[in-house]
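request received
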Amino acid sequence: MVNVSIKVNGEMRTASVPPETTLLRLLRDNFNLTGAKLGCDVGDCGACTVIVDGLPVNSCLMLANQVDGREVLTIEGLATTDKLHPLQKKFEEFGSLQCGFCGPGIIMSAKALLDENPAPTVMQIRDALGGNLCRCTGYAKMIEAIQAVANGSIEPVASKSA
Amino acid sequence: MACMWYPIGFTVAANPSSAVVKMNEDGTATLLTGTVETGQGSLTILAQITAQELGIATDDVHVVSADTDTTPMDTGAIASRTTYVTGNAARLAAEKVKLMMFDVAAPMLGVKAHQLEAKDHRIQVKGYPQRSVHIADVANHARVVTGEPPIGSASFNPATVALDPETGQGKPFGTYVYATQIAEVDVDDETGDVDVIRIVASHDCGTAINPMLVEGQVEGGISMGVGFALQEEILFDSAGRQINPNLTNYIMPTSLDMPEVEVDIVDNYDPTGPFGAKGVGEPTLVPTAAAILNAIHNAVGVRITSLPATAEKVFAAIKAKRGQHVPPPPLGGPDEHRLPNPSPAT
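response:
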């Protein structure tokens, strides 16, 4: 067993887990933070994306022990009890998600992008979402929502109704 | 470019949906439906239909769905049927509730029931909206005075006409939708790589009850169509085992593969649908691959006749057209055995 102490969504958490435990399993099974999803479990789909020290990572590919002493932000850390994060709000407004399984990962990838680059181009948004698969939406309304958060306005690039 | 039609509301077997609508004494309504929400937005559509019929807000419709303890059984969230079939059931159930409330409100307003309409949370006299009573007061009056709480149930089953065994003629579906999609592609004639730049999708779905959800369905269908056209293929080895059983090598479109999509919702009205609506789910995927392959032909003059139109196939077809020999596409590994595909070039 290894002892892991990490700051999750601003709160210090500790756990004693088998060494092969991934960050995703630690979050879901030990800390009951089930927002990050277990999709492919091999780093293809991005449904498990969380932010570690400011960078988006596939939490299924990172061992819990590698995160010891670091800071993790998950989808649960975005909204407060009375207010959604602007990304969540715009995703809701634009109908950006359908089944929603990819949503936590997509939103965390988008947050990491906007934290680093508050005014991304459409191509930079597409690039930032390149590791997050979505089977439902065609990504268009997600890109629009991220643009809306970034600019407060929308370039007519992703999709529009004629 | 590719065009298509697609049938909505099959009649080959019974295809019913049922709904129960109950008007509550606070002016909200409850809808019971067996259909399943999987993200396509059908419960929003059903709430909108119910709200429109009752003259209340969509947010005031509580939808209880897909619970065998409480909701009617549904044929399923399949076959692009929910808006049309389940939507009709919800509208008919709400209409019954509305007519019950008209009977209660008529003496309250001193008019005949047929002179009433439901609008803006009120039952009002047609042409005299100032003569009205709040829908909550009508529901409460129905409960505590007339003793007839407004609760309605209805089923909808698309009208069936048996197929003639001699001619095969009949009416196999309730209605049909139509669409045209136009693809713009960039084909690299040195590698065969195809980049879809833009797709314009024009869809008739009857009345678009929720245009944003229609756009979402079209954009999602097109992403599946792009994968179908260019990327997605299940490969088997000689023993019949799938050799690409995960997302590492079963390739589907990412945000970087998606073209710009322009959605054009054709203004239409189907008298057999709820408020003129038909459906939009599966049809969005139907013309995409055909449009992309026609665009490839338009760009480099080759017909690809097996999907997906991988760079290898397109490259081989371009070389064949130019009369140059190229070796067949390399196989992925010693075990790999591609499904027999027809020659890519014709």
